Amino acid sequence: MKLTPWKVLAAGAALILLANAVALVGVYLNRSGEADSRMTLSQRELSMPWRGGMVRENSGLALALNWRVIETSTGEYFGSGFGANGGTPDWLDESRMAALGFDTAAVAADQAERRRFERQLPREVLLVLELGGPAWQRALERTRQNVARHEAALLANADSKEFAAKAKRAQEQLKREENANSRLFAIDAGLDRAALRAKYPDRGRYLIVKATLRPRTVTRDKQTRVSGYLSALAVSQINVPHALRPALEPALRSQRRTTDEPGARFEATIAFGQRLEPWIEAVAVAR
């Protein structure tokens, strides 16, 4: 059959229509029935575009979901020990990795086995994210302890510019933790959605999302143990409906980035549907 320009055009149009139909069916299936979770997040957990002027030009405005992990290793300054949008959580041990489908046999005993373990393909898992709960309180407490440690060091070395600078950075880190950083922490992972929801029934406090898990070994105090690296949520960008964008424009125009303020304050109600895909239901901007 000879292809004419009209036939090529018709085939292209049919393909576009088919793709749109598939996408619409996916949206319908995701939003049918009761939402798996519904949570009110702020500018701390949802990142904004850097330039407010882009709102009028960008028809595809989206918010990024910001989440964190408390890692197995920690450091002195901002970000150390609290991985942003990925990391190696301290609760992800050998038994968890085995339960998530990874072969962990004899990993710690042999270097070749460790390499084999880390070469295993990444897996998609169900990740539990907790908002403003014990994990965030742990992060706050750890940051306050860091401030106390640096202030004590400064008292013992009052004339040291180095210790003064470290104490200042620790205080800035605490301000960010109290007022700016995301309060959404990864606290668990599994493969059985029903079991996770039974364990974490509060749908306004716990999100269940799909994420990528890669095998990793961690060496600390000369001891090597099995762990994993969490990253790449299946859906990390949440599109802002056109009808809700005017509510965000004041926040975008007045957006600020300072030590203790991540930007203009707003809240958004986010629902996660049957396919664990999110959408924005409402937006409120602080005046």
Protein described:
The protein is α+β, with helices and mostly antiparallel strands. 36% of the residues lie in helices and 26% in strands. It has 8 helices and 12 strands. The longest helix is centred in the first third of the chain and has 27 residues, at 5-31.
From the structure above, extract its key features.
287 residues, three-stranded antiparallel beta sheet, 12 strands, 26% strand
TL;DR?
This protein has 287 residues and is of the alpha+beta class.
Topology:
Layout: H1 5-31, E1 37-42, E2 46-47, H2 54-57, E3 62-65, E4 68-70, E5 82-84, H3 94-99, H4 111-118, E6 123-131, H5 134-156, H6 161-179, E7 184-190, H7 193-199, E8 206-220, E9 223-231, E10 237-239, H8 245-253, E11 266-272, E12 278-285
Antiparallel strand pairs: 1-11, 2-3, 3-10, 4-5, 6-7, 6-8, 8-9, 11-12
Helix pairs in contact: 5-6
| Main pleated sheet | 4 strands, antiparallel
**What spatial order of strands do you see in the largest sheet?**
7-6-8-9
Provide the helix percentage. Answer: 25-40%
What are the segments in which pLDDT stays under 50 over at least 5 consecutive residues? 51-56, 76-80, 256-260
- Average pLDDT metric: 82
> What fraction of the residues are assigned to beta strands by DSSP?
25-35%
The multimeric state of the shown protein is single chain
Termini separation: 64 Å
Shape: globular
